[in-house]
Write a structure and sequence with these properties.
79 residues; mainly alpha; 3 helices
Length: 79
């Protein structure tokens, strides 16, 4: 009786672990397939123009001065 119960437990464990392994393997392949489809369907995004200076694009001198002062205060540790 005990050998039969042990073999049934082992059989159940192997079936359960095999089911989980197959599901996770299927999930990996499905995720990779969806990723490949998403990359294929994604529109091309143009690269930003390297000749334009982002700091000078639309910042006024007062905003630049305020940001510089805030960074200086933050880095010095004062409040």
């Amino acid at each position: 009786m005990e050998g039969s119960l042990l073999s049934q437990g082992l059989n159940l464990m192997l079936i359960g672990m095999g089911t989980v392994f197959m599901f996770l393997t299927l999930l990996v392949f499905a995720t990779r397939a969806m990723s490949a489809i998403a990359i294929r369907l994604q529109p091309d995004i143009p690269a930003p123009d390297a000749t334009v200076d982002p700091a000078a694009a639309g910042s006024s001198p007062a905003v630049v001065a305020a940001i510089t002062a805030a960074l200086h205060l933050h880095r010095s540790g004062k409040k």
